[in-house]
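Work Package 4 report. The design task specified in the project plan requires that, given a folded chain encoded as structure tokens, an amino acid be chosen for each position. We show below one input record used in the internal validation round.
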């Protein structure tokens, strides 16, 4: 059973990694003529970020989405 907060954090992290990686890779392609070494570094780091985001999508798909019971379902009064 995975906490809803953990699932939400992973989902947010997935998209941050994918978008940041794509922006870095595209920036690397754009500056390839001006600075080849820097461009390939940006492309490599961006690719690693995108791949990490994709792997996290797979990890997220394997998580149990069962809700953790709250106070209302257990019959305890709210204060």
């Amino acid at each position: 059973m995975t906490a809803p907060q953990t699932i939400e954090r992973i989902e947010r992290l997935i998209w941050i990694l994918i978008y940041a990686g794509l922006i870095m890779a595209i920036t690397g392609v754009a500056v390839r003529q001006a600075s080849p070494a820097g461009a390939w570094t940006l492309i490599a780091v961006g690719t690693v970020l995108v791949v990490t985001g994709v792997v996290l999508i797979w990890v997220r798909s394997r998580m149990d989405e069962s809700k953790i019971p709250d106070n209302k379902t257990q019959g305890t009064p709210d204060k």
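The chain has a mean pLDDT of 88. Validation will be extended to a larger panel in the next phase.
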